[in-house]
């Protein structure tokens, strides 16, 4: 496998990570996601890691970078399906994500992204009114 | 990897196949999908194969079996993201799917499943009226 597929769901992109990401695969994913956010005008990215038993500090850092890249392109990232053991490992490894939020499943993740977009459009209207 | 994750999107289930399915993985997927259709009351199954360069007759048969199992449980199956070369190979292999339809991408696949459900509910109303 040379790349992880990215699926489009309306304004959001969905990535289901099922394999251990080696260096090149992680970089390709980051590239592909950035390209798709720009080309499709995506506002949100959902990353499902329910298939991962283990997340090491390399994958932790890659996921953080993906979220940071998305943020620069004005898209929000939500990670879903994290197993309890993975959450504990991430805390133990000291991995912190500035631009990533977490939701239990895809549906809750999409709700989170929708709420974000509504907040953003309200803020835009308020700015418009104030001006 | 011991199983392919199944994601829930409203009334539908989404499976993104990214690895070559050996025997056990295929059987586990068929089992897991049947269980999830029953437990979650899913009406549709979307199978994304955009990551597959190659579909051999074994995978072709497995996908057909998955769709047939779903059909017995009153769920429809749509395959999405098939590459042109895969389509040609399937025809050359003589693989035919009785219970599977195809759509170019997830969004069109979901529209197909939605249309099915509307047809089904109309048919139900008509039967009710006739009775």
TrEMBL record, chains A, B:
InterPro entries: Bact_StressResp_Reg, STAS_dom, STAS_dom_sf
CDD domains in alphabetical order: STAS_RsbR_RsbS_like
Domain of life: Bacteria
Endpoints of the signal sequence: none
Domain STAS: 1-124
Classification via PROSITE patterns: STAS
A Pfam family matched in the record: STAS
Annotated SUPFAM superfamilies: SpoIIaa-like
Family matches, as Gene3D superfamilies: STAS domain (3.30.750.24)
The protein's name in its UniProt record: Anti-sigma factor antagonist
Lineage of the organism: Bacteria, Thermotogati, Deinococcota, Deinococci, Deinococcales
């Amino acid at each position: 496998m040379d790349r992880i597929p990215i699926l489009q769901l309306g304004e959001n992109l969905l990535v289901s990570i099922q394999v251990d990401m080696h260096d090149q695969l992680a970089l390709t994913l980051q590239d592909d996601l950035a390209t798709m956010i720009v080309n499709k005008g995506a506002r949100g990215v959902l990353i499902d890691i329910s298939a991962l038993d283990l997340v090491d500090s390399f994958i932790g850092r890659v996921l953080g970078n993906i979220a940071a890249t998305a943020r620069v392109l004005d898209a929000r990232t939500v990670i879903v399906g994290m197993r309890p053991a993975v959450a504990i490992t991430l805390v133990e490894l000291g991995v912190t994500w500035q631009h990533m939020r977490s939701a239990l499943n895809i549906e809750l993740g999409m709700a989170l992204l929708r709420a974000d977009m509504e907040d953003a459009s309200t803020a835009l209207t308020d700015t418009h009114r104030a001006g």
